[in-house]
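User: Predict structure, ligand adenosine-5'-triphosphate.
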Amino acid sequence: MNPIISVKELVKEYGTLRAVDGISFEVFEGEIFGLLGPNGAGKTTTLEIIETLREPTSGTVTVCGLNIRKEADAIKQQIGVQLQAAGYYPSLTLTELIRLFAGLYNRDVDAEEILGKVALTDKSKAKYKELSGGQKQRFSIATTLINQPRVVFLDEPTTGLDPQARRNLWDLIRDIRAKGTTVVITTHYMDEAEQLCDRVAIVEKGKVIAINTPDALIDKLVATGFERPKEVKKANLEDVFLNLTGREWRDE
Ligand code: ATP
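Assistant: Predicted complex:
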């Protein structure tokens, strides 16, 4: 398989703190790759170095065959990154914001089509501040697609969303992959990583401590004799919730 991102011996120091301590991994073209780990493990720092937003202390990173130190501008053209909400001018509509970002990327885009991809066509004339939490997350994912990137980075895209919105966002992320775009995602939800990711890397104290498919990691643990307490019921509270409230988007 073809690596679209290659990280070798990456180190990032903040003063005396080694937030990233010699991380190496590859992301293959066309996969959904998850970066997992406890708070403060170094995930965001690693992602932002790959996105060319932070300088590494040492190590080599290439994205789409380009070097982050020498070819940052070319990399920015090929990747989709969620912008901070502060960049969403409050008085502009979603359509106007998409056009504004397209202008920054020097791209000619159909704003309606992009909003359609994230089921926000009905909100095209709304302002960002008028959106619900789930709609804001979807809009933020839409902005990553404007420059038709080869790799999209999503930092905790479903945090704070209701069960329906999470599931619908999973479908959206799978759609993005189905169109050939590689997706790199961070999440604290292990069910989400298990459902969505082709492979995951688990980061702890600035190091990768495991990397594989979710299935292989689970099998390895089971092979050590690990057994989880037996599930006594055939459904859980989330099943009850979804059964009662349905699976449709709820924030329209
Ligand atoms: P979370 O799951 O909480 O988002 P994370 O895995 O993304 O955590 P990072 O944000 O990369 O972790 O932070 C790793 C460590 O580096 C933390 O101890 C954090 O306090 C520290 N850190 C991050 N950014 C800076 C910075 N700009 N200056 C100094 N220290 C920083």
